[in-house]
Amino acid sequence: MNKKKRQEIFARLREDNPNPQTELEYSTPFELLIAVLLSAQATDVGVNKATRKLYAAANTPQAILDLGLERLKSHIKTIGLFNTKAANIMKTCAILVEQYNGDIPKTREELEKLPGVGRKTANVVLNTAFRQIAMAVDTHIFRISNRTGIAPGKNVREVEQQLLRLVPKEFLLDAHHWLILHGRYVCKARKPQCGSCRIEDLCEFKEKESYL
């Protein structure tokens, strides 16, 4: 895909959604971090349902430590892998209180040292909470980057690097959200909605004719 096509793709995505937002509900960087930790192998809808009740009871690292592991589990038991996630959250909260005065670090290196926080989670927090240029490549972004030809890559890290290199600079800060939302609602895994897609004429998906 050439530069002109990429420019037009993101221009249209921005036109349709000038201020894209994550669908995870949060009001502080800490709440976002916990929501993203819970979102692995879970839907945003499911995470939001759990965090609404959790954050009403505890929404700071110290408050969650005071809540205790078993009560934390009771709030997130509807989410997959909740035992492991609860353990990681408690360890993360302890580190945040002891080393960061309850604040969230603003570098990838520090974030990735927190239990349960990998590169993707760190990138979401950096981009969404702190408005830093970072590309969190999930299954949606990986699929779209390869399917459309925007930024092909053999693995998640390769796609991340390609996107950072190839997405026009004016769109980099919000590209993560545009691509996720496009993958979630239009360019779906099993049945892409090519016939109603805003970028169908620019997309290089070889099989799109069968979905028009």
Concise description?
With about 210 residues, this protein is mainly alpha-helical. It is built from eleven helices and no strands.
- Helical fraction equals 55-70%
Mean pLDDT: 96
Main beta-sheet annotation: none
Q: Structural class, from helix and strand content?
A: mainly alpha
Measured by DSSP, the beta-strand proportion falls in: under 5%
At the fourth level of CATH, the homologous superfamily of the largest domain is Hypothetical protein, domain 2
The CATH level-2 architecture of the largest domain is identified as Orthogonal Bundle
Question: What does this entry look like structurally?
Answer:
The chain has 212 residues and is mainly alpha-helical. It folds into 2 domains: 3-20 and 135-211, Endonuclease Iii, domain 2 (Orthogonal Bundle), CATH 1.10.1670; 29-129, Hypothetical protein, domain 2 (Endonuclease III, domain 1, Orthogonal Bundle), CATH 1.10.340. 58% of the residues lie in helices and 0% in strands. It has 11 helices and no strands. The chain has helices spanning 3-16, 29-38, 44-57, 61-67, 69-76, 82-100, 108-111, 119-129, 139-148, 156-166, 172-185. Helix 4 crosses helix 6, helix 9 crosses helix 10 (156-166) and helix 9 crosses helix 11. The longest helix has 19 residues, at 82-100. The radius of gyration is 18 Å and the shape is elongated. The model has no long low-confidence stretch (mean pLDDT 96).
